[in-house]
Amino acid sequence: MALLSALLEILRRPTMVGMLSELMMFTTPLWMVFIVGVLVGWAWKPRWAKNLGNCYVSKDALPASPSSSMSTCFASIPSLKLNALKFQLPSCVSWTADDKESLSLPPAATKSDSSLSQHDAEKSALVTGEDLEHICRLVEESDGGPAWIQMMDRSTPSMSYQAWRRDPETGPPQYRSRTLFEDATPELVREFFWDDEFRVKWDDMLIHAATLEECPTTGTMLVQWVRKFPFFCSDREYIIGRRIWQSGRSYYCVTKGVPSSLVPRRNKPRRVDLYYSSWCIRAVESKRDGQLTACEVLLFHHEDMGIPWEIAKLGVRQGMWGAVKKIDPGLRAYQKQRASGAPLSRCAFMAQINTKVSADYVRSLENNSSNSSEVEKVDSSGKQKDQNIPKLLVVGGAILLACSLDRGLLTKAVIFGVARRFGRIGRRL
């Protein structure tokens, strides 16, 4: 309490110069502690610290379902993704095989399951009917989660983009976006975002993509991604299960982190276990002529990459539009490539194998929950109440955290705890 009282007294100084000078003197011991912690983290990292984080099992990555029992451990402290600003959208194409569900879908939504081999059933179980139900509720904002806070509303001549964020009681911040592409079909957009071979040409953060397993019956895929991050962060590895459901010309594309023994866990790149990124792609009216020549993509995304959430949210806000506006040129290049008659990649071919569900079944999933989420707007400057922390502390903490990422577990615990304490003080002031 004495520490808090002293800090409040400093913040009540009548002049900004006086407040900053007192604040610098007040925080100097903290900076010294941080520096000592960084040095200790660099010089000493016991073997048990590397494995300590693996004892914590995440339950926030996905909706409660049979698949959630496969939730895996993730190391270090709860944290979010700086990479949320690289919103990946799904991809789709319209021809669909007669897909058989090995999941908990009703008979009206699927054909016979008996022809699925046991091995194919195991692959399909990576992404299940529970995941379809969850994304349907997200699309209709009936999942009962916190209110969505609007972050952005930007556009170009051929694309418009809106983004929202919300902070659940547990787990990292969640992001929702709506992107409208003019003169694009849902099928092409689905293939564009499913095509890992082409993605490396426009997504400059993706440095490796490989298909580990695939199910030719349901289109379920198990893929490995490695994404590049700034020099102070190690690269991140993702083991992703993904699958697409089709209802008319609407496509529900689910991707999420799943456990797999096919790729051994390594120190570098650091594996991201808590990962959820799913889209609904559908044809909508164009803003130009009112015809169904535009494509709408609703994205729902969250992940835990080992970066403190408040700093990650600041990075997302600053870099989101710069990353998103690069997607449209990539899509137009993909359109030209497809128009030239270029052959489909294997990933794009797999995007065409969907599980068909009826529109009535989708509506029953959407209406299954009576609790709807609200949507709130913030002013264009993006200043929110939870961001009233003095910028000096945020910037200084960010630099120190960047220097100590992936070093000492004790260092990260100390820094994160102090940052959260200051964040709570800042929100109360």
Automatic annotation (TrEMBL):
InterPro entries: START-like_dom_sf, START_lipid-bd_dom, START_lipid_transfer. One of its GO terms (molecular function) is lipid binding. It holds the Pfam family START. GO terms for cellular component: cytoplasm. The keyword Phosphoprotein does not apply. CDD domains: START_STARD2_7-like. The keyword Transmembrane applies. Keywords: Membrane, Transmembrane, Transmembrane helix. It comes from the Eukaryota. Residues 146-336 form the START domain. Residues 104-123 are annotated as: Disordered. PROSITE patterns: START. The chain crosses the membrane at residues 23-44. PANTHER family: PHOSPHATIDYLCHOLINE TRANSFER PROTEIN, POLYKETIDE CYCLASE_DEHYDRASE AND LIPID TRANSPORT SUPERFAMILY PROTEIN. This is START domain-containing protein. It comes from Juglans regia.
